[in-house]
Amino acid sequence: GEGEDWIKDLGPPHESFDDASADKILERLKELRSPEARFIGETEATKEEQQTIQSLFDQMGYARKVGNRGRRGQAREKLKEFGVKVLPHVDKQLSSGNFYRRLNTARLVASLAAKDDAWRFYTHKFNLVSSLIPMVGDQSTPQSFGLRAAANEALEKLTGASMGFRPNSDQFRTAAQADALSAWKGWWAKEQEAWIKAEKERSKAWDET
């Protein structure tokens, strides 16, 4: 919930608790609130903001012709100003068939990412890692080498991990890049297991508290 409103749902403390005990329990419950309750509000945008964000994503996909490279870069810089409010849109952009939109979205994620509890939640909630990993192996266009490098950089910024990816300048991925792709898939599978386990433990601790 927003602010301290969630506390109201708990009702008054039992009469057997003194103020110090009640405060201690409330502090513990604050720590145990779900990531959804703690962080999702930061990603919510107004209708007007959502329209602007979508328009800017569209601009990041402008075709390759004179002047558009600058326009795509300007759109990406403007999107950065919205911070995590862009994240609900990212999965769709990374999965689009537009090369420049995918490329610039990966670069946008890399520029915003932080290694903290909120961003760990965002990676799961908004499918950030699972959308970026296939791009590390992309071979769909002559410019795919740029897409692979941008996706790998975003993954490293999001996770703090490195799978030994080395960029090249060819449409087709190298054997080492294929190994990095496989390593990212393995890392993500383990992270998903760890996340589910941690959430179960947090939920249990909440109920017990």
Structure in words:
It is a single chain. It is built from eleven helices and no strands. With 209 residues, it is mainly alpha-helical. α5 (68-80) runs parallel beside α7 (99-112), α6 (87-94) runs antiparallel to α7 (99-112) and α7 (99-112) runs parallel beside α10. The model has no long low-confidence stretch (mean pLDDT 89).
Terminal-residue CA separation: 18 Å
Helix and strand element order? HHHHHHHHHHH
Strand content: under 5%
- What share of the residues lie within helices? 55-70%
Which parts are unreliable, with pLDDT below 50 for 5 consecutive residues or more?
A: none
Gross morphology = flat
Round the Cα radius of gyration to an integer and report it: 21 Å
How does the major sheet shape up? none
Mean pLDDT metric: 89
Number of helices: 11
Structural class: mainly alpha
* Count of beta strands: 0
Give a quick set of tags describing it.
single chain, 209 residues, mainly alpha, 11 helices, 65% helix, flat
Lay out the secondary structure.
Elements: H1 5-8, H2 19-32, H3 35-39, H4 47-59, H5 68-80, H6 87-94, H7 99-112, H8 117-125, H9 128-132, H10 144-159, H11 175-208
Helix pairs in contact: 4-5, 5-7, 6-7, 7-10
Concise description?
With 209 residues, the chain is mainly alpha-helical. The protein has helices at 5-8, 19-32, 35-39, 47-59, 68-80, 87-94, 99-112, 117-125, 128-132, 144-159, 175-208. The longest helix is centred in the C-terminal third of the chain and has 34 residues, at 175-208.
